[in-house]
Specification:
The structure holds two protein chains of two kinds. By secondary structure, chain A is mainly β. Chain A has a single domain, classed as F0F1 ATP synthase delta/epsilon subunit, N-terminal (ATP Synthase, domain 1). Chain A contains no helices and nine strands. Chain B contains six helices and six strands; from the N terminus they run αβαβαβααβββα. In chain B, strands 3-2-1-4-5 form a five-stranded mixed sheet, with helices on both faces.
């Protein structure tokens, strides 16, 4: 599967930075998934789990909420 | 001319002062390097927040966060230091701030740092609540606390704008006024083709506090770095001056000591000739 760059930023540090094939998170109106070549989007991220899938495995992060921006196969979540 | 004992005492006292300034230099440089790494890790977060915010604001014209709320007072936060021994840092900030504050209509002045507060009060500026916590503990919780306080003032209609006066470390510690509220919408961002989920209004409810806290944190961190940098330079200069003074005093001590010895020898040999 095609990969894209993804990072999770907190005010003090980079929580995750790397390549992944998909990510799933809780948006205010339900679960939302992103694959490579997704159209540009800015979405609210609700409190809950964010799952990052990469060829090496799956990682799950519990976030207090935040905002996701995805454009040109670059995804970033800023944690609130 | 001072005697040997006086010079010796002076050498000891200057040496002790040099030890103190040396220690303070090391403390300031350690604090600066710690703060610098926090600034770097926060920069990516702050940049991302402002990028998302400008896109979202450009797509929500008429947002309350980008408009003047009609209040007749303007809030200003002056960030200085509550400790001395940092050269003209506080004096320069107080001078710059009092000039800028006088240009504002009905300013409400909030201060971080006891030294700046006393200088501003002396120049006839009435200061509201203190935010000493910003200089004592410049972490994320402090920034959130301060940001939430001013956001409540703005959304409650008590103030029409909020600016921060501080020394910007990223710009060679130059003094500046940064207007943080109301936000400025970037018209060019309207061309960006983002989908906003669930909608811009809900997004802004989450985004505005996050972004505003991040901006306040950037200012506090920048001011903290500037303060430590100025203190480091002041202590380095003091340390160098103490070194020069010690060298001069040691020379004077040796001259005086040698003169005393020469005089004594001359006296002894003179007495011997007479007898």
């Amino acid at each position: 599967m095609k990969e894209f760059n993804f990072k999770i930023l907190s005010p003090d540090r980079v929580i995750f930075e790397g390549k992944c094939t998909s990510l799933v998170f809780d948006a205010p109106d339900g679960k939302y998934g992103i694959l490579a070549d997704h159209s540009p989007v800015i979405s609210a991220v609700s409190e809950g789990e964010l799952t990052v899938t990469s060829p090496s495995g799956t990682q799950t992060f519990t976030l207090p909420g935040g905002i996701l921006r995805f454009e040109n196969n670059e995804g970033t979540v800023v944690v609130s | 001319m001072p005697g040997i004992k006086e010079i010796k005492n002076r050498i000891k006292s200057v040496g002790d002062t040099q030890k103190i300034t040396g220690a303070m230099y090391l403390v300031a440089s350690a604090k600066l390097s710690g703060a610098k790494s926090t600034v770097l890790s926060h920069r990516a977060y702050a940049n991302e927040c402002s990028l998302i915010l400008s896109s979202a604001l450009a797509h929500s014209p008429g947002s309350v966060y980008t408009q003047d709320n009609g209040a007749d007072t303007q809030a200003v936060l002056v960030i200085g230091s509550d400790r001395g021994l940092c050269g003209d840092y506080n004096k320069n900030i107080a001078k710059f701030a009092s000039q800028k504050i006088k240009e504002l209509k009905n300013p409400k002045v909030y201060v971080s740092g006891g030294r700046v507060k006393s200088l501003l009060t002396a120049s006839g500026i009435v200061c509201e609540e203190d935010f000493d916590i910003a200089v004592k503990k410049p972490d994320n919780e402090t920034a959130c606390e301060i940001a939430d306080y001013f956001m409540n003032l703005f959304t409650g209609g008590a103030v029409s704008s909020f600016s921060v006066i501080f020394a910007d470390f990223a710009d060679k510690s130059r003094l500046c006024v940064k207007k943080l509220l109301p936000f400025e919408a970037d018209e060019e961002e309207r061309e960006s083709g983002y989908d906003f989920l669930p909608d811009t209004a809900t997004l802004l409810d989450t985004l505005i506090p996050v972004s505003f806290r991040s901006s306040v944190r950037s200012c506090i961190l920048s001011a903290f770095c500037s303060e430590q940098n100025t203190r480091m330079m002041a202590m380095k200069n003091a340390n160098d001056n103490a070194g020069d003074l010690l060298a001069e005093l040691r020379l004077e001590y040796n001259h005086t000591r040698q003169n005393a010895i020469t005089e004594e020898i001359a006296d002894v040999s003179g007495e011997r000739k007479i007898t």
